[in-house]
Amino acid sequence: MGDKLQVTETDDEGYPHLITDIAITSSVKADATELKEIQARLDARDVLPRKQLVDAAYVSGPNLKHSQGLEVDLVGPVPGGQSPQGRKPDGITHEQFGVDREANVAICPAGQISRKGSQHDSGGTQFRFPRSVCTACPLQARCCNGPNGRTLTLSPDHEILSAARARQDTHEFKTLYRQHRGGIEGCLSVLARKYDLRVKRSIGQRKGHLQALFTGAGVNLRRAARWLASLRPQVRRKGLGLARLSSSVL
Predict the structure, then answer these.
(1) Are 24 and 5 in contact (CB under 8 A)?
(2) pLDDT digits (tens, 9 = 90+) for 116-143
(3) Domain range 3-77+168-240, its CATH number among 2.60.40, 3.30.420, 3.30.590, 3.40.50
């Protein structure tokens, strides 16, 4: 029901946090499909960031690849895999397989080699391991979801997603994302609670979008004026686990 609000906000140390993009979008469209349009609008206004922090809904293989092409470092948690093995505590997931692209084969954690990969309908590559090999493997219970051999389907963006998943396990990523995560929610909270942006004053998405643009412009004018008057955003106590009120990016 209703629409979504997409917001991008700066978070540079020593500068006011300003809204650089705001838009009303359809509630039935996934957030990941909106990122390219957001980046295109930012690029057109010459405010495309070098580092863009987003939540998991915006992170996908195509978005990571597109952002790299724009020289934008897209920072956000990669959604977990939906395979049955990924839902097991000790399941053997796609990331634990090696892939030899030149030979077009996959290598499982036990060292077994798959048959030649074939093109999947999704555009990825599918590798099949012989049933005889998998049934004799001590790792079968963790790897196979049935009596047959393991089937491995890798998306066209498998490598870039694997690299992003490895990155999010690092201390640097966790520190950076934790520093800004509260602000992502804080930005939307301020717009909804202080500026009543959850309520559209007119019927229709176009009028709602215009309302969002006016609200974003008003927020920026107020923040810029307060900054020039040396009035800085309130710093919350660390013990509350809250970020600064306006330190959000998407």
Answers:
(1) yes
(2) 999 877 788 999 999 999 999 999 999 9
(3) 3.30.420
